[in-house]
Write a structure and sequence with these properties.
twelve-stranded antiparallel beta sheet
């Protein structure tokens, strides 16, 4: 269904889906493909066959009462029936021929069973949304009494709805023509959005050193989303689907809303390869992106631009029509044009109104000492603690944790606790952090793979340890009409007022949320490698022990982290210099 809708979107905008598909999958020019790729040209015949097979399967699975279940046998399921009715309606609107009798029977089943979910707001909102889409597509006049009653029930209990359900109810209100209620629900969504205005900055860096990258105002496009970022139990709590439906509501009701761009940005950043976390949220996100493309007009570009470096023209290009799907152009800059200090790189619009996306890559060799921290979407900070033992009368031999900072000393034989604090701006998979050890210290553990866990820190503990933060999340309140009210809680960002922190406040067990992630560690000669398969958005702590052994002055090179399959998501910590003295 999403592929069929995307094909219709392209045709509606004057583009040929087959042409776009050939350019993206294979990177060939259809006009000259025969010479080098005799079988390189593709068409949409396979998609048509898949649509036909899928429809026949749905018709075969429909039960006698008009509903659908998880399987051909068994009882009809409210959620699944609503999913099918919604999908068939979208398919019809995309120009696909469907059996109207099957769709009508499914809608009738939903209409009769709406009342059964009066206390289950998630389920009732999902069913009502499907019926509202069918209502609007069929150009029905008056709203049926069962649907009116269900809407009134959800509206009366709207303060109990989560972001996903509010977005569904907002879309339902829009489809029924309840414009005032739709606008109010959009305001409710604005109350509960989670915004990061500085995705390129981190409290871990601002609190530890005056890094140049953190001292400048953020120029990156912010992100905004709804839903849970990590582990969740209800289908309506997931971040990707909640955000995708919220974007659909924004595009339908308030397409000029200031949240549209950061919400779209968050969805794109949380894509992994060609998909999101599963087939359903991928399908729903594709539908949301279709809504965005239809409204933004980005698939009908008319743009001419010029790239200049320090006043010298590097390239100029004109983009129109299907050229928007060409492989991204890369322009190498002659090193002779690069000068010491600041460089002026400009992309100048010479004509047209289309959007332009760009990225810059630079490679250089740094002579700075100590090496300063930096990051892109993930950030890391390392803190050493000396474990100083002392005898007690009742508790035996205890160890006190004393910060071991840059330039300080530890004695040979003393144990050193290493604490890595990681900030993840989004949800990530397959991360690797390589902690480069000082030459005079060795890991206490002698076997790789021993149990190690990352523990999530509470936001209050992050503030106490690293200083105040500036970004806010506005939590929804019981007020349905104001998008200015709400309880604001701080989330992770840098603070312009936070100076270097030489001795961070200690973190106790009460400072953790209780969420953990298993970490696989490999103990190598020069470093400790830490592998994390999934890391939800938040601030996480990993601890392990070293032992000071060889006397001397040593440099602990920065921790280096990156997403193994998305290498541009990367970070490095700060270099630390320590001295190991011979124990006397």
């Amino acid at each position: 269904l999403p592929a069929a809708i995307t094909a219709k979107t392209l045709r509606d905008m004057g583009l040929q889906p087959e042409d776009v598909m050939n350019r993206i999958f294979g990177g060939i020019e259809p006009a000259s493909a025969a010479a080098t790729h005799p079988k390189g040209k593709h068409d949409l015949q396979k998609l048509d066959d898949m649509v036909k097979a899928g429809l026949e399967r749905l018709y075969d699975f429909q039960h006698g009462d008009g509903g659908w279940g998880w399987w051909k046998q068994g009882d009809s399921d409210h959620f699944m029936t609503a999913y099918v009715v919604w999908g068939l309606t979208l398919a019809r609107d995309a120009g696909i021929t469907i059996k109207m009798d099957a769709l009508q029977r499914g809608a009738s089943f939903l209409d009769k069973t709406l009342v059964e979910e009066e206390l289950n707001y998630d389920e009732q909102a999902w069913m009502l949304h499907a019926l509202s889409v069918f209502h609007a597509s069929s150009k029905q006049g008056q709203v049926g009494k069962f649907q009116t009653k269900a809407f009134a029930n959800l509206w009366a209990n709207r303060e109990k709805l989560n972001a996903y359900t509010r977005a569904l109810l907002a879309l339902s209100a829009h489809n029924y023509g309840f414009n005032d209620q739709a606008k109010t629900l959009i305001a409710n969504l604005e109350n509960g959005v989670k915004i990061d205005n500085s995705p390129d900055k981190s409290v871990l860096i601002s609190g530890s050193s005056p890094s140049p990258s953190n001292s400048q105002p953020s120029t990156a496009l912010g992100t905004a989303h709804w839903g849970e970022d990590g582990i969740y139990w209800r289908w309506s709590d997931g971040g990707v689907e909640s955000t995708a439906f919220a974007l659909r509501a924004l595009m339908a009701i308030d397409p000029q809303n200031k949240l549209v761009e950061p919400v779209t940005n968050w969805l794109i950043k949380n894509r992994r390869g060609a998909q999101w976390s599963n087939t359903r949220d991928t399908a729903i996100t594709v539908l949301a992106m279709n809504d965005y493309l239809r409204t933004s007009g980005e698939l009908a570009p008319d743009l001419e631009y010029e790239l200049l470096v320090n006043g010298q023209s590097i390239a100029s290009k004109k983009v129109s029509g299907a050229e928007v799907f060409n492989a991204a152009s890369q322009f190498a800059v002659d090193p002779k044009l690069i000068r010491d200090g600041e460089n002026d790189v400009r992309i100048v619009r010479r004509g047209g109104k289309g959007s332009i996306y760009f990225a810059a890559e630079a490679r250089y060799f740094s002579l700075e000492e100590p090496i300063t921290p930096a990051g892109n979407e993930i950030f890391v900070r390392r803190q050493y603690y000396k474990l100083v033992g002392r005898p007690t009368l009742l508790k035996g031999y205890l160890y006190d944790r004393q910060p071991l900072n840059d330039g300080e000393t530890v004695k040979s034989g003393e144990r050193v606790e290493t604490v890595l604090t990681i900030e993840a701006k989004n949800n990530y998979e397959y991360l690797l952090f390589e902690d480069l050890k000082p030459a005079g210290l060795e890991a206490v553990e002698v076997r790789s793979g021993e149990s190690l866990y990352a523990n999530e820190l509470k936001s209050g503990a992050v503030e106490r340890k690293f200083g105040p933060t500036t970004n806010t999340v506005t939590e929804p309140t019981a007020s349905p009409k104001s998008n200015l009210r709400g309880v604001k809680r701080r989330i992770l960002s840098d603070s312009a007022n936070s100076g270097p922190v030489s001795r961070p406040a200690p973190v106790t067990d009460e400072d953790h949320t209780g969420r953990t992630r298993w970490v696989y560690q490999e103990l190598r000669d020069r470093k400790v490698a830490l592998f994390i398969d999934k890391l939800p958005q938040g601030v996480w702590e990993i601890k392990y022990d070293l032992r000071a052994e060889v006397p001397g002055q040593f440099h602990a090179l920065p921790v280096v982290g990156h997403a193994m399959y998305v290498p541009e998501i990367r970070c490095n910590g700060q270099e630390v210099r320590i001295t190991v003295e011979d124990a006397k």
